[in-house]
């Protein structure tokens, strides 16, 4: 492909500038790599129910340990 060769060509119809812009926008969005989803933010309400500085307990016995004082 040479520098003068267009990236795309309209073969039928006469699109408006807005229609061409919409087409180019759709192509650009489709060619971008998918971004990783943002981590879910913990709400202030949920954060207020946790003791300060307490990390969640994981592993065997975690359910039992979640109700015990630290």
Structural commentary:
This protein has helices spanning 17-31, 44-48, 62-65. The termini are far apart. The mean pLDDT is 79. The chain is mostly helical and 70 residues long. The longest helix is centred in the middle third of the chain and has 15 residues, at 17-31. It is built from three helices and no strands. One of its GO terms (molecular function) is acetyl-CoA carboxylase activity. Residues 49-62 have a biased composition (Low complexity). This is Acyl-CoA carboxylase epsilon subunit. It holds the Pfam family ACC_epsilon. Residues 49-70 are annotated as: Disordered.
Summarize the helix and strand pattern as letters.
HHH
What does the largest sheet look like? none
What is the share of helical residues? 25-40%
Q: What is the CA–CA distance across the termini?
A: 68 Å
Number of E strands: 0
Radius of gyration based on Cα positions: 27 Å
- The general outline is rod-shaped
Number of helices: 3
| Beta-strand content estimate | under 5%
Mean pLDDT: 79
Derived structural class: mainly alpha
Question: Which residues form runs of ≥5 with pLDDT under 50?
Answer: none
Question: Would you spell out the secondary-structure blueprint of this structure?
Answer:
Blueprint: H1 17-31, H2 44-48, H3 62-65
């Amino acid at each position: 492909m040479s520098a003068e060769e267009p990236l795309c060509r309209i073969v039928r119809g006469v699109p408006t500038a807005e229609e061409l812009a919409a087409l180019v926008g759709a192509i650009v969005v489709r060619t971008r790599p998918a971004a990783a989803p943002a981590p879910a933010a913990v709400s202030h309400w949920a954060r207020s129910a946790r003791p300060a500085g307490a990390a969640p307990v994981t592993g065997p016995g975690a359910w039992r340990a979640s109700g015990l004082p630290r």
